[in-house]
Amino acid sequence: MKTSKTSSGSILWPLVALAVLMAFNLFFTPNFFRLEIIDGHLFGNVIDIIKNAAPIMILAVGLTLVIATHGIDISVGSVVAISAGVVAMLIGGDLKGEPKYPIFVAMAAALLVSTLAGMWNGTLVSRIGMQPIIATLILFVAGRGIAMVTTNAMVVWLYAKPFALLGQGYWLGLPFSIYIVAFLVLLTAFVTRKTAIGLFIEAVGINPTAARFAGINSKNILFWVYTFSGFCAGISGLIVCSTVMSADGNNAGNLFELDAILAVVLGGTSLNGGKFYLLGSMVGALIIQTLTTTIYAFNVPPEISQVVKALFVYGVSLLQSGKFRAKISGLFGAKEIEA
Amino acid sequence: MKKRNAIDPRSLPILVTLALFVAMFGAGSLAFFGFFSLQNFLNLFIDNAYLLILAVGMTFVIVSGGIDLSVGSMLALSTMIASSLLERSHLDPILVIPIVLLAGTALGFFMGYLIHAFDLPPFIITLAGLYLARGLCYVVSIDTIGITNDFWEKAAHAQIKIGDSFLSPSAIIALAVVLAGFFVARYTGFGRNVYAIGGSEQSAVLMGLPVGRTKVAIYALSGFCSALAGIVFTFYTLSGYALDGKGMELDTIASVVIGGTLLTGGFGSVFGSMLGVLVYGTIQVLIVFQGTLNSWWTRIAIGFLVFVFCVLQRAFDVRATRAAVNQASEAASAKG
Asked: 2.30.30, 1.10.3470, 1.10.260, 3.10.590: which CATH number matches B9-323?
């Protein structure tokens, strides 16, 4: 009970939660696990869940590292809107699908702007020393305004076919966005786990001052972690924009920051920083999306899913609370607590 | 306590906000014909009454070192409960208003209890509260519910004359809340406890202050303010809608920060938050008068102001820490 969680122990609980959700669907949702091959593409609920979870999963990659440093980035939803706005304006709403600028240029520009947004957050947190929630609050508020100004407060519709690949396209039978997620996760996992960077990030999360005395450049670690989060939000924005082939500065990425933070927390990464579980965050994002899909399958108005989400957060937070565990173990002796 | 000849450094942020407000209102008066009038000034209170009420509750939360992200959704939930009770259950306003206020206070109490009893981060608990309240709105109804109640319509259209100008009942309620908040923060034990907790929770515990009770009460108070703001909001819209107040939690936090309240807790004032809301309102009016900028520039301007004030706060913070070493006894009872 009192021993610190091992890495496998931490991924276990999110997986159990996901398995329980899946098992529930196996019994109560007809055809939930049915997969079909149409035109060589794989279709089905499970594929849809992964596809729809992709934007949140990508945000969660960046946020996992941010939260590991005992930080938070609430601006990611706004950055998603900015990224979508920039790419949409550069491709342009030409009805024949002729992009104004080459699609790759537009995408690169959107990623550049998002990365700059991340650098802004990183500068505020690491150089000026603002609390992360305040520092990112600024871009959270202003970002949506910037997105609306970028798109002239209109919804921009896109008709450039090749751009649709990102969010709607298929490759080797699977949705293209799955490959983007997989690539990003593997790359991040490799860089953080096979080099010392992951250790540095955790050290900064546990105690920035101690980390500095140990020779780690805490400020630079913080700066790059927020920059990376902005970059991830940029990719997420591209996928969101491509999925609906439009950019809506007001609604694109709305409340995404909450879903992404929730995914990270569900995945076992504590908001107090110091440890992170990249795969756990991915499972967390899948749990959220499965929950949403399940609720849809039962014809419950999708908005009510927020109540379920809220109860989920309360449950998970309570399980992370030392006081709560102490109370529970007081009740049941030294028994293991349930998920 | 106060030094006579020098300006108290702790009231400096409020003076900065006041100067900013005067400068912005003055600039508007010079630039636009018809901007400078008593009515235009009073309109700031009329148009932002709900924001004023939210900001008062939020001030207590932030001064205690916490945060409440649920206020926007709580406002929406209150509009839904009020309109559904009035229109669908045909209850009398005398019953409806207390029920709404009680519901808001109870939800706030619930969140405060979780935060205190299980040592959970206010950020996460109130974030979940944001989801919860917004979701509950849809449980009440997915559609807009129009309000046709007589009392509500009277409250919506009534004008209280001040010379040639007027205030609305909403504005009067908001001003009363500001006054009450000011009084509670300054002259009651509860208010002093809030500042003490924000200054240093550990010290507050060691001093034997009722930290737990105060923390729960703070979130209950914020819940109450959200519910009241929700009622006032229905005076404007004469309807309840589940999407009301989207993103309002951040407008509220921004106003409080612009009003000079430290987000690290322990310092701030209700009066400052009122000035913060006035600055926020003035930006909106300026953009309307200017005419060519779209209203989204408000958000950018607010974001920029929050940035400026946060940087200022950092500067004050560094100084305050030095001052606190010298005057350790005064630090705990810091007041605006």
From this structure: 1.10.3470
